[in-house]
Amino acid sequence: MNKKFLFVKTFGCQMNVYDSNRMVGALAVHGYEPTEAPEKADVILLNTCHIREKASEKLFSEIGRLAKVRKKGSLIVVAGCVVQAEGKEILRRSPLIDIAIGPQNYHQLPELIAKYVRDQGRVIQADFPAESKFDNLPMLKTSPANAFLAIQEGCDNFCSYCVVPYTRGCEYSRPSKEILAEAKALVKAGAKEIMLLGQNVNCWHGDKGRDLGDLIRDVAKINGLERIRYTTSYPSKITQNLINTHADTPKLMPYIHLPIQAGSDRILKAMNRQYTVAEYEKIIADFRSVRPDIAISSDFIVGFPGETEEDFEQTLAVVERVQYASSFSFKFSARPGTPASLMKNQIPEEVKTRRLMKLQKLLQSQQRSFNESTVGKELDVLLTECGKMCGQLVGYTPYMQGTVVKAPKSQLGKIMRVKIIGASATALTGKILK
Ligand code: 5AD
Ligand code: SF4
Question: Is 169 in the pocket of ligand 2 (CB under 6 A)?
């Protein structure tokens, strides 16, 4: 088989990172080797995100940039949610795209490339096929120390601002048998930590009568696996069993990403989120009662249609009460086809910007305080990547804090005991203990 090269660029969420890895695995079987150099690549693969406006704009400017450096005869493949959302329109918007493929069709990628080469015709594949992509993709042979594993995909919640139910389709949970086989393969391939992924990960229902807590306890039995995480959770679907798993499963890390989105019940209702602020805070209290040190993170949207100053103040107030370890916050972006994009009372851009800056200032100060609270402590750090400076490695504490240490490359992929000696809003510094 001729050696061919594949360049991949991934936009958006962790699910996209996972999908990109699975596509790399699918093409490896056909002789494609990953490369960091787009000018060397036979196939340039861009895995796209459609969640907010800027995400899709970035795609088209990236295509323009890559087209200038690519070698003659190479293919540009665009995958992911922009393809699902735009359909055939995407080929019209950018004549440089050779193949477009939706999130449910990744297993068909090698076949589509062969078809393109045979017929020299641009192709798009973005239906919801009867067979599952998960059953038709090869297992990965190598894995980073912190691996992703999709256990659930799609969403039936239809938050009024969100494109995910349209781009990723309705909820689908993989059976635990399949998940455990993939988890074991990842551990064999080098994973020490597995992040269980789903758009609504705690809605997992792959086995009758069992929930995510039960699945995590099963995954924890895998020898050689040291850490388990999961994301993203939906507040009202958190079960007591999942909360208890944080108390009885040491491999489950003390961290929960639980997006509240807004601190006003009126706005939550308009967003079609199925909980109140009080219910959300009760869930946080329940997590903290079994695991007092648990780190909480969230997503926020400011400037949702109709959001008043008072609504926004309520978001600031809930942040003050909860005390987040880290967070992501965004200006509301009107996505085509969503109910919120059609709402009358859209908020002016400058108001959104002002609110976002105010919220981010508060969140950042909380993140800094959380990081500072770990200075002087000894924590386990999973070293996952090289640092910016020579002789440095970067890893993650149980609370997901990026931590820079002095260490040789040979310690990549290991969990080391580290004394935390410094903290900023974004990272820790530490010293490996002998
Ligand atoms: N505008 C702004 N932020 C959004 N998100 C999802 N859709 C939108 C939108 N239309 C944010 C939510 C979600 C995160 C992944 O992205 O906060 O939790
Ligand atoms: Fe989007 Fe809401 Fe589903 Fe999350 S729960 S993916 S925000 S529709």
Answer: no
How much distance in Å is there from the Cα of 233 to the middle of ligand 1? 14
Residues 365-416 pLDDT 10s: 999 999 999 999 999 999 999 999 999 999 999 999 999 999 999 999 999 9
The ligand whose atoms approach the alpha carbon of 339 most closely is: 1
323's CB contacts (< 8 A; 6+ apart) are 296, 366, 369, 370
pTM as predicted: 0.94
- Does the C-beta of 257 come closer than 6 Å to ligand 1? no
Measured distance CA(75)–CA(109) in Å, rounded: 12
What's the start-to-end Cα distance of the chain, in Å?
Answer: 47
| Buried b or exposed e, range 80-90, using 16+ CB within 10 angstroms | bbbbbbbeeeb
Q: Quick check: CB of 165 below 6 Å from ligand 2?
A: yes
- Tens of pLDDT, residues 163-218: 999 999 999 999 999 999 999 999 999 999 999 999 999 999 999 999 999 999 99
Q: Which CATH architecture has domain 133-372?
A: Alpha-Beta Horseshoe (3.80)
CATH code reported for the domain at 4-125: 3.40.50.12160
Whether the predicted pLDDT of 1 surpasses 70: no
| Tens of pLDDT, residues 184-195 | 999 999 999 999
* Nearest by Cα to 301 from 52, 55, 57, 58: 52
The continuous run of DSSP H or E covering 123 comes out as strand 123-125
Q: Which CATH superfamily is domain 378-432 in?
A: Nucleic acid-binding proteins (2.40.50.140)
Domain ranges of the chain: 4-125, 133-372, 378-432
Task: Find out whether the beta carbon of 83 lies less than 6 Å from any atom of ligand 2.
Answer: no
- Return the residue whose CA atom lies nearest to atom 6 of ligand 1: 162
